[in-house]
Amino acid sequence: MNKITQHAYECNRPIVGVMCDRLLIEDHDSHTVKHSYLRALVLIAGVYPVLIPAMLTEEDNSYLNAFDGLLFPGGASNVDPLRYGEHTALPMLSDHARDHVALNLLPTAAARGIPVLAICRGFQEMNVSLGGTLNADIYAAGRQEYHRENPKEDLVSRYRYKHDVELTEAVILHRLTGKTHVRVNSLHNQGVNRIADRLTIEAVAPDGLVEAASVKGHPFAVGIQWHPEAVLDDGISTALFKAFGDACHDYQAIRRQKRLGNQAS
Predict the structure, then answer these.
(1) Catalytic residue among 120, 147, 218, 248
(2) CATH topology of domain 10-264
(3) Which among 98, 50, 56 has a CA at the least distance from the CA of 75?
(4) For 32-54, how does the pLDDT look when each residue is reduced to its tens digit (9 = 90+)?
């Protein structure tokens, strides 16, 4: 491919890989991502999303070279408790295909410095992939009911703000907002038990549950337990997706400089 053709195929927007769920929809084996995540990436972060199917079985992550960032969204399923050493008889929806791909990708992305935004299930995947553990049922572990999702509510009511979190000073979310407390809309049954050593706690709920963390020494690898993609007109949700987009643009620029340097040599 000559330089003119190569330039024509380059995307000015950063390319962000988005982890898919693998679920049965009317008996069809499907790979899915909610529109709300893609909308936030395109309209707020200013990036171009590309879906990562939950079916990649090889350990070679060379396809990560195509991405300037990664989004690990929430999902209907839970991380398999066996992945963090817990045995439970609790009934839960599992997605073993996503577990395999996501838990393989996250440590590699962290090691390479690829920008990461991990939301809800994605945050739980981040913690487990880096050596932390979860509670399969946070309510049995003594957490408060304000984390619980009510599927009988309409979507607007379901994703309303439910509780505050306290932000850790001098880390990413505190720097983005300039606040020590923000109100969030977390909806989950699993949650952090032991935080991974490689993560810095970013936010804690009033009942002590860790609701956000970032990878130590990484420019931007943030996991949050709540759902900013559902409420894009508040300060922290907009700031979070914009910051993720900025990190992806920076990573894209670094990759292009390296490529140009390699071509020149």
Answers:
(1) 120
(2) Rossmann fold (3.40.50)
(3) 98
(4) 999 999 999 999 999 999 999 99
